[in-house]
Design a protein that fits this description.
By secondary structure, chain A is mostly helical. Chain A is 74% helix and 0% strand. In chain B, 41% of the residues are buried. The chains are: A mainly alpha, B alpha+beta.
Chain lengths: 160, 349
């Protein structure tokens, strides 16, 4: 990969990769590791990206794979308490802190699709394809994730 | 009201640390540099070190208290009286201090297992904040003479604050895990822990750079006492690769693929075994991918199953692998009913 393309993709998607890794791993340190690993793989890939969306899709897939690999491996286990995120997130308000903590308290299978759907704007179908799951499964996860957040925060969703 | 806008506003504040950003953008300048983070120890062929600042709730007790808390976190239960006796037998007071200027560092106590050790390290002399985390900017932890005896081997260690003592000192926990292809054990006697700590550092949140709050170097040389560590030996076993490996590798070819393990040794602090890849290239490819995902746990006589705290592997001279796993706390080997390695349960008589 040429340096100009790498720099552009790194500057554009570095935080996306980190946020997705945080949602998957719930550990800022592990998310840092995964983020570096993903961009090292980007640097070394021979993939010819067919436009920016293709590159973004590739980065999401590689991030999920790297996070899964790290998470399932007994060779490296680390967890972090939620307060570890506060400096990173520098959340300005109580409402945001509450949502952040509530999302991070969810099981992984709800956190990751919520992020892809609500933050990255992927459709349910695209989210299902990225996660390698059926559309109906992702719909269920999104619904249950929203439901748990509603209960925990005692607030409604405007779009469920 | 929760909506997409609030979700995005909330998580837009979650950003990679400046250090990570710098490392990644620096990659373009050095395309041939080594990978920025260490490979899993399964790939280690030389001594490597990992610095991890652990983040935990305040703690000011003894090593036994620490193990009790870890055990409770993992199992929801208390350590047994027999287990407490095992911990006592592996733990000893050190009480060695080194002072540089205003700061005194003391190695309070140490627990030495077969291929793992834990030590409590206290730092005093400054006003420390209870909710802050401290470590050392540079450190070197070695066991001498080299238990690997020049053969393949590896080690990882971490040191970070876990709380304040009643006198206001920062209490840190050192955890060291070794993988010595010679199968030499740290508790065999004759080894020394060489510890060099430099520049006391305030570990800030992941988004900020750590700050050196006191420059200096504190050196320790602590003999590791010989101890009796009952060992359960199993000549060999065949274990099936876990479904986790299949899923992680996106293949179903791992079904039916097995590892043969030999010279399996189970102690109060961990498990070790030798293994090798198949001569069949197709099987070897799956095994190579799967070794990193091989899960290890111990099943106690009351049914409690405890996963290994950490695991690693090192090449051996003959091209095979020597693997170790460490339990989260020393346990009474007489309580062990079975091991689970991969998908296979190995009963212990």
């Amino acid at each position: 990969m040429d340096q100009t393309t790498f720099t552009h993709l790194a500057e554009t998607y570095l935080d996306m990769v980190y946020r997705l890794a945080c949602h998957y791993l719930r550990s800022p340190q592990d998310a840092d590791d995964v983020t570096q690993e993903v961009f090292l793989r980007l640097l070394r890939t021979d993939t010819a990206f067919d436009g920016e969306e293709h590159a973004r899709h590739w980065l999401v897939r590689v991030t999920l794979n790297e996070a899964k690999r790290l998470c399932r491996s007994p060779w490296r286990q680390r967890t972090a308490p939620l307060e570890d995120f506060h400096g990173t997130a520098a959340l300005p308000g109580e409402e945001q802190r509450a949502l952040f903590e509530a999302v991070m308290d969810l099981p992984r299978k709800y956190r990751v699709p919520l992020y892809l759907y609500y933050y990255e704007g992927y459709s349910v179908g695209e989210t299902a394809e990225l996660l390698g799951r059926k559309v109906s499964t992702v719909q269920t996860w999104l619904a249950r994730g929203r439901e748990q957040l509603k209960k925990q925060l005692q607030e409604d969703w405007s779009d469920d | 009201m929760i909506d997409r806008k609030r979700y995005r506003e909330t998580f837009s504040h979650l950003r990679a640390s400046p250090e990570t950003r710098r490392r990644i953008l620096d990659m373009e300048m050095k395309q041939n540099r080594r990978r920025p983070r260490l490979a899993p120890l399964a790939l280690a062929a030389a001594l490597v070190a990992v610095l991890a600042v652990t983040a935990m709730a305040a703690f000011s007790g003894t090593l036994k208290d620490w193990f009790a808390r870890e055990w409770a976190n993992r199992t929801g239960g208390e350590i047994s009286e027999e287990q407490a006796l095992v911990i006592d037998s592996l733990t000893e007071k050190v009480g060695e201090s080194r002072t540089v200027g205003d700061v005194t560092v003391t190695v309070d106590s140490i627990t030495v297992g077969s291929d793992t050790l834990w030590a409590l390290v206290d730092v005093e002399g400054l006003d420390f904040a209870a909710n802050a985390r401290y470590t050392f900017g540079k450190m070197n932890v070695e066991v001498l003479s080299d238990p690997s005896e020049g053969a393949y081997g590896g080690a990882s260690y971490s040191l970070g604050s876990i709380g304040l003592t009643e006198s206001g000192a920062v209490r840190m926990l050192l955890e060291y895990d070794g993988i010595f292809s010679t199968a030499n054990q740290l508790n065999a006697g004759g080894y020394t822990l060489e510890l060099r700590l430099s520049d006391l550092t305030l570990h800030r949140s992941p988004g900020e750079r750590d700050e050196v709050i006191y420059e200096g170097q504190w050196d320790f040389s602590i003999p590791l006492t010989e101890s009796m560590l009952p060992t359960i030996a199993i000549d060999s076993a065949v274990v099936a690769i876990g479904a986790g490996a299949e899923e992680a590798e996106g293949t179903e070819t791992a079904s039916g693929v097995t590892f043969t393990l030999w010279d399996i040794r189970v102690t109060a602090t961990g498990l070790s075994f030798y293994t090798a890849y198949s001569d069949d290239e197709a099987v070897e490819r799956v095994q190579m991918a799967a070794l990193s995902y091989l899960e290890v746990s111990v099943i106690l006589s009351d049914g409690t199953e405890v996963s290994a705290n950490s695991s690693g592997g090192s090449r051996t001279e003959d091209g095979g692998w020597y693997c170790t796993s460490q339990w989260p706390a020393p346990l009474n080997v007489e309580d062990i009913a079975a091991l689970r390695i991969g998908e296979t349960e190995i009963p212990i008589n």
